Amino acid sequence: MDGGTSFTSVCINTAIYLPWLVSQCLKNGVNFRRGVVKHIADATLLHHSGEKADLVVNCTGLFSLFMEGVQDKNMYPARGQIVLVRNDPGIMATTSGTDDGDDEAVYIMHRAAGGGCILGGCLQADKWDSAVDPNLAVRIMKRAIALTPGLVSEGKGIEALDVIRHGVGLRPMRKGGIRTEREVVKGPDGNAIKVVHSIGHGGYGYQTSWGCAAAVAKLVDESVAEKARL
Ligand SMILES: Cc1cc2nc3c(=O)[nH]c(=O)nc-3n(C[C@H](O)[C@H](O)[C@H](O)COP(=O)(O)OP(=O)(O)OC[C@H]3O[C@@H](n4cnc5c(N)ncnc54)[C@H](O)[C@@H]3O)c2cc1C
């Protein structure tokens, strides 16, 4: 290793953070409706008032590659795999690369409030496989112990890791970066639908979420104001 740095940062336990966000929305009067949308136009029919929605915010992640009316061909998956363990090395750590290939990584993140410790990982572009790769899991655990030996008692190996579960996720990547923009889409009935896209957040959707949400709110306000002037 040529060099390193240490700093204080924020680590989000998403299992706690996401329900908190839902509770904030409920507190502020948001109406939740669950539904599966085939064409972006279908979303206009989900408004809680029973009226057709004036505008749709598209935040369907990777499904924007397939959704009728969107089909953004710049979207692609980047597969990630992690091991969640009960062990706590006392520090969080990562390196800028590994000796196991360009698409493999090492990071150790201990989540607040008993959320366990995440050992990662990888970033495998265009891989859709949602099954755990056991060989990769072994490499992840070995790299984590090599970087933070405090994960296990001295002299112990991966057998000393207390595994809670293995996980695989597909990051919603996008060639050209995050797409935050307005578009008018033609529905199957020929009617125009106002859409604001917020897709392609890749491996940084939490980090960018507050900024992206502010940008989306601005675009929605602009679109609604235009309608009011008509
Ligand atoms: C291993 C791994 C590690 C990561 N680490 C980090 C990190 O350290 N920091 C960070 O900021 N980010 C990280 N990310 C990335 C982060 O998880 C994503 O960027 C984020 O979840 C993207 O959010 P999103 O809302 O845009 O898309 P998604 O989370 O994919 O949400 C899309 C939603 O749309 C819904 N949907 C899709 N299609 C339809 C349809 N047809 N009808 C109705 N609903 C539909 C889905 O059900 C889903 O709820 C990581 C991801 C992985 C896999």
Short structural description:
The chain is α+β, with helices and mostly antiparallel strands and about 230 residues long. The chain has helices spanning about 15-25, 135-145, 210-230; strands at about 55-60, 75-85, 95, 105-110, 115-120, 125, 165-175, 180-185, 190-200. The chain folds into two domains: about 30-75 and about 175-230, Rossmann fold, CATH 3.40.50.720; about 75-175, 2-Layer Sandwich (D-Amino Acid Oxidase, Chain A, domain 2).
| Portion in strands | 25-35%
Residue runs with pLDDT of under 50 for 5 or more positions: none
The mean pLDDT is 95
CATH level-4 homologous superfamily of the largest domain: NAD(P)-binding Rossmann-like Domain
Radius of gyration, in Å, reads 21 Å
Helix content: 10-25%
Overall SS class: alpha+beta
Q: What's the number of structural domains?
A: 2
CATH class of the largest domain: Alpha Beta
The number of helical elements comes to: 3
Shape: elongated
At the fold tier of CATH, the topology name of the largest domain is Rossmann fold
Number of strands: 9
- Small-molecule binders: flavin-adenine dinucleotide
Distance between the termini: 62 Å
Let me know the largest β-sheet: 6 strands, antiparallel
